[in-house]
# Entry
Amino acid sequence: MTTKALDSGTLELLWHDREVREIRLRQIVKERLTEKPPLLDDQIVATYFLALRTLRLEQAATEIAYHATSGTRKPPPGSLLEQCTARVVGVDAFDASGRIGLLHMAFPLKMMLHPDGSLTSADILHTLAGAIIFDVYENQDAKLVAIQIPEHVIRTFPGPAYGPGGLRRITGFAGDQPAFGTILKPTAGITPEQVGQLVEEAARCRLFMFVKEDENLYPNLDYSPVAERVRRAVAGIERARHERGGLGLIFAPHISGAPHEILETVRAVVEAGATGVMFSETFAGGTVRMVREATKHLDQPPAIYGHNAGIGTKTRHIWREIIDLLARLDGIDFRQTAPVSPGAPFLLPYGQEWVASEFAEKAKYF
# Structure
């Protein structure tokens, strides 16, 4: 069977390297956001990069305000509808067409806040990153590149139980002491006995501060139930304790499943001795916040490892530092990023994106 060869123009289109464009766009946006958009006490300010087919940025702002908030184009002045309608607070067009550039939108807290003054990352994202931003044909390209949240709202989030510095304290690692983590290999198809053996082997190395399971090792397996894996891992750590020089070791089993199963699994692994838990929060919306709230009353809540498997499915449109900041606010203590090193990167984020993610991870709130 023969197939028709593609023409050079089509191949060039299909081979388009979005990473080259993203690197340049990030440089431009960083320059433009040196002076941050206004931080309003009663609004969340979202900054978008938009490339529009026919509309000017100001016109897109009107559509965003209409579809993402009150659904009213001309709310009566002073009304509740007006208090719940977004508004444009800045336009930065890149050229004379006015169709490409940055748009700063203010979303009123009035439409989001719970009676106690709190809100959730899920509410923030489904309002600031909804269909009108990413799903309409008019928006040839659209990215949520920055958000500004009033500090009094940020303070209502649980945040991490420990953070990287806190994990060092509870495990005995000094601030300037090398601390590494490792993952179990094989990553699937292993029994509790094998988990115990692997964790014990890792525990004998004093460089390791934590050991985590892989996202492909599921909790509810007939041949490898997670609570039994934890019991074996804890026993392995205890057997190696005399070789660790007093250093602790976090073990984080992978927690997954249907929403109604999550807390039951977390309780089971904590009772079995787990000092950490791991989630792929990209595909477990709200889980980190739920577990953080459910365990924060414990004398030593489990550390939460926010695995970033699949995060790239979001970062094409929502910049990674926004996702990282919200994950930290929800309660993750630590997650994997990628190092800046010479040559071609193996993992994303890289370069400025890596630095921005690290900045979000180390925000002043933690």
